[in-house]
Amino acid sequence: MKIHVPTLISRKRDGEHLAPDEIRALVDGYVAGEVPDYQMSAFAMAVYFKGMNARETAALTRSMLESGTTFLHGPQHPPVVDKHSTGGIGDKVSLVLAPLVASTGNWVPMVSGRGLGITGGTLDKLEAIPNFRVALNLEEAAVQLERIGVVMMGQTDRLCPADRKLYALRDVTGTVASIPLITASIMSKKLAESLDQLVLDVKFGSGAFMRTEKEAQRLADAMIAVGREMDVEVKALLTPMDEPLGRAVGNALEVIEAVDCLDGAGSADLRHLVLDLAEVISPESRAELSKRLDDGRARAKFDELVTAQGGNPADLRRLAEIHEAPQVREYHAADTGTVSKVDAGLVGQAAMQLGAGRTRATDTVDHAVGFDRLVKVGERVHQGQPLCRVHVRDRFDYDIAEALLDKAIRIDP
Ligand code: URA
Question: Fewest C-beta in 10 Å: which of 95, 227, 279, 342?
Fold first, then answer.
């Protein structure tokens, strides 16, 4: 279809709805290099302000999905399922959930992203495991999926190239926070896994993309509508992200906490959320899933995954030594009382300042730094008691983290 791009941009700017084949032609033209970045950024800004209806969002998702190749599962495959989280602080759920669900016989071809801004990314965490390869190609991924039922990898050049290009553009043009653009971006990548079922963890709160439950519901509704349009069962849980998930924030520190959870131990809020989400996409009951965390079956599947992707499960017990930060300091309570706030957004900012996250997609992350043994809301503490450990490169970084923790943690008498 021949389109006149300035007219499409103006029509969207004026709030018109575009036809699916117009959106398709625009996306195809962008991937082919015929539509330049300046026109696509103007279009993205028009969408940012005027939105898209469900039909347009589905058309954008489909165009981005079909800009590349997808997973092709053979005819006799078990249910193919996955989870996507919109991202939070200390969110290491994927590391536990993928092997847990795969241990029940479902296939989990999890394509994840890197951290950007204050939220961490699954790929960065996995790379804290020495030699773990996240850059698998689709052929390698298919072989591994067939063999062990789980893959955790990054987006390849062939998966949704339109999203890759558009996301990089949105990142530098102030057009990331748009529900239809986020929906198409996330759903195109997830649907490229050729799923039967997807569960979404849509987070809201100070440490999430969406600040309010209402906004999170709008995003969830948009993603569910796209799933319906494309014949994939999508369910969403809306979960608060006002305090960090678990007690660790930082790449290696979060892997250590995830391994604890896979060993049936660790933080209760992490275990609960893993089970809430796993229950939706697994044939097994919550009680059975819980048992698999306690009896080593989920952990055994994670070890298989680590081995299959180049790592050594024996290193999982040594991660604290492998990624030992130059300084590990305690942060102490100024008062006695009950913890009423551990602000996830501020803890996330602090972790980023220490080097655990990235401000630009090309930055590298420091696997060693961050926080662990973090206090939880509702706990009683005494003046002088440690509220967390801070893993830092030097004293100056500690001072930055301390100032943010002073604001993040509130203790009521
Ligand atoms: N994550 C994505 O993959 N895309 C978005 O647009 C936002 C978050």
Answer: 279
